[in-house]
Amino acid sequence: MQDPYVYPGTEILINKYGIKNYEELIEIEKIITSSVWQDISEGKIKINKTFDYKHLKSLHRELFKEIYEWAGKERTVDISKAGTLFCRAMFIEEEANRIFSRLKKDNFFKDIKDKMEFSEKLGQVFLDINMLHPFREGNGRSQRLFISDLARENGYDLEWENISKEIMIEISRNDNIKETAEIFEKNLKEINQTIEKIRRKK
Prior knowledge:
By secondary structure, the protein is mainly alpha-helical. The protein is 55% helix and 5% strand. It has one domain (48-201): Fic-like fold, CATH 1.10.3290.10.
């Protein structure tokens, strides 16, 4: 069955630039999304931080709206990567409601004072959203931004730059909460510590 998201006879995603070269598309994606990520992080692009499915969709839309028509919209096809089958398209909304309803019930972890316990909760949301994989492409960047927002809401800055791409792939593939929590705990810094580090660099 032909994937409606790609140019016929290729694995290249249909994009607003009409690019049909994989490396070129990846490079354009990287340039645009890196810039938008920075603007979102600095508050130049406003996102309504409701910590629900709408919040995640908004992040994806802002990151990819210059590149793909379907930015911010859930996929309509089933996808897999490296042998991992993600949530079936027909169940995405139902599963998303389960994930974010539980997050709301947990009061977005605001009552948790222990850093390791918070890391475990944060890691579980990360892994759940990863298995949801609601978009045709760009899931990793969207979920990392969402997790960053959730960490900041609780007084932490998650330093993704210290977590290599290889480690990110490994924890996503392994779907192991203990492993994920340990990595998050190591790279979660209290906001005031992050501010002090920035000041020292000046």
